Amino acid sequence: MTVPFIRVVDLETTGSRPPAHDVCEVGWQDVALSPAGRWEVTDGRGAHYVHPGRAIPPVTQAIHHIRDEDVAGAPRWRDIAPSVLRPDPRPIALAAHRAAFEQRFCTSPLSGGADWICTWKCALRLWPDSPSFSNQVLRYWRRPAGLDHETGLPAHRAFPDAYVTAHHLRDMLAQASVAQLLAWSAAPGLLPRVPAGPDRGRPWRELDDAALARLAADRDEDIRYSADHERTRRHGPAAAPPASPRQPSLL
After folding, report:
1. Residue ranges making up the domain that contains 140
2. What separation in angstroms does the CA of 173 have from each of 90, 135, 165, 182, 214?
3. How confident is the prediction along the chain (251 residues), in pLDDT tens digits per residue?
4. For residues 45 and 15, what is the distance between their CA atoms, to the nearest angstrom?
5. 25 near 176, Cβ under 8 Å?
6. How many domains does the chain have?
7. Do 72 and 27 fall into the same domain?
């Protein structure tokens, strides 16, 4: 019998924008449903260097410490991605912390059209009191059970980061269904506090309507979504615009 599992993926890259940048390392860690009905971090894990087809910029090397000589004989991303993203058996979903980044490189043709869970967006919903929502802050704020400290190091490498994220995902699945995590991941991030500007750090409930209206027009979709969410909580859904009158018949 196939055991349902979710594959947590983390990428290290030469930069943030394909096709100008590409993958130089991939790591993964599986989270599977046990016979007892609990989600658990499993032995399904791994990592590969990937040749990005270009030099790794020094600014990026300073983050993950992957050098050109480390990836010299590695496969290209298009060649190795299918085996990681759509193994046999297939995961019921892929997951990543701030999954929008991974999805830039894990395109639908490579992933087989997989659904994605964003553990960053889900953490905003489930643990709004966290001082921050980065993978590593959540690690030390929450201290997930069973997370081996050394296995989760060094940070900013593909497997250790996937390993840490998998522990967050396991704990999220103890509080919410896969369907709920997917729904939250498909929406913009619901920020518990204003992230920037004169109201930085304030809960949305503390803002007046004028401040909410201003933030609802922000360029950042997460800020817009969060401001609109609070406006809806206060005043109900915005009324739909009136329908255009039908053109009168000339006959």
Report:
1. 5-186
2. 19, 16, 12, 11, 35
3. 689 999 999 999 999 999 999 999 999 999 999 999 999 999 999 999 999 999 999 999 999 999 999 999 999 999 999 999 999 999 999 999 999 999 999 999 999 999 999 999 999 999 999 999 999 999 999 999 999 999 999 999 999 999 999 999 999 999 999 999 999 999 999 999 999 999 999 999 999 999 999 999 999 999 999 999 999 999 988 755 566 655 555 44
4. 24
5. no
6. 2
7. yes
